[in-house]
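Predict the structure of Probable malate:quinone oxidoreductase.
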Amino acid sequence: MTPSNDTADVVLIGGGIMSATLASILTRLEPEWDIRLLELQGELATESSNPWNNAGTGHAALCELNYTPQAADGSIDIAKAVGVNEQFQVSRQFWAHLVDEGALPDPAAFINPTPHLSFVWGEGNVAYLRARYEALVDHPLFAGMEYTEDARVIREWTPLLLPGRRKDQPIAATRIRSGSDVDFGALTRLLFDDAEARGVEILLNRRVTGLRRKDGVWHLSTRQTVGRTPGDLKARFVFVGAGGGALKLLQKSGIDEAKGFGGFPISGEFLRADDPELVAKHQAKVYGKASVGAPPMSVPHLDTRVVDGRASLLFGPYAGFSPRFLKRGALTDLPGSITIHNLVPMIKSGLGNLDLVGYLVGQLLASKRTKFAALEEFVPNADPSQWRPITAGQRVQVITKEGVIQFGTQVITGADGSIAGLLGASPGASTAVPIMLGLLKDCFPDRMDGWEAEIRRMVPSYGTRLSDDPKAAEASLARTAQALGLQV
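Done. Here is the predicted structure for Probable malate:quinone oxidoreductase.
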């Protein structure tokens, strides 16, 4: 389908969870707007939103230990964990609203109840996990957290972790039963189905080759990836939600706000097991501690994944390197992203992160046996014949204008609010709703007063912090759990 020549109100670039979320929100705030989606591939959610390209944890910081660092005095900083959890609750509220509305009629198609556990071994790590539990257990967003150092209890929680382990090894675990597993690929497609029914035009196999602002609107040059037919499109507002491809598109736009930013791509691999008997022994997501010197995204975890109604296990991640910015990208992506504006920050980030470079080299040189040994630290009796490697999605970590590698997400907004894009990775997908609401506030400040009532209907806690109101937190957790079919 060739887009018409008139000016669209909104053009979304990239068919992943971010664009799907923004489309879903905007069709409710402005049902008369002309909104169009351009996706490079022939189907939606093929990159980071694909369920096999990400951990699908439903990042709520319930078990991810990298969100609760320990200070030199032994205290635990819970600020990042609380912030991530707050954001995830906003996403949960929006999804629950769509379920109640009938837009997402079967929540089990994209979200399933899955306990979240943290598991550690060694005296120092046990002391850390105990301190973390004590710091979080009374927080309203972490209600129901359990802690144990009893091997028998841990065996009940997740039977795979104990057999074959030394009986004198100090171990500890926490559990929150209200965790979830999210298939963001399924959720993306469901959101776009709803958006399309509300009038959003979805254009697949469409590559954006040019992006420039002229006469108060954005002019997009496009080319079909099948047939190579060129096309032009105009838009009053553009959102670049193209995952690893977002940086190059923002550079094409020429906005000053994107100058100086760079990207560092990191590829990944997981071990996957599908044997039903094995999978039945591990109905949980279990996060451990990253090894000393390893980057935050390398935290090892053994996860239950539910995709298309079938459960599997994933263990990883194993980091690697590829110059591609997308899994289906080009080898020239990284060198092609280097400009006169970000050359110095890129060099500075490389010199300042030699430990990360060393870690990646070590991962690249690691043998199959070495990689499997990492799984055996979690599952001592793991059988190699039951596990196979799969390639995860590409993650392009943000390099800031100061030359710092940022392990998170970064919204880039043009000065006039007519264009915005998202760079970075985890915990991105799980926090898509608050990220998009923040983007709307930055880009459409003159409309927020008129939108606020509808936003509060979709997200009742909008503008407040559940952390500050234990009763509101309890009510929100219970309401969204009921709507989404999760544990309270």
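The mean pLDDT is 91.
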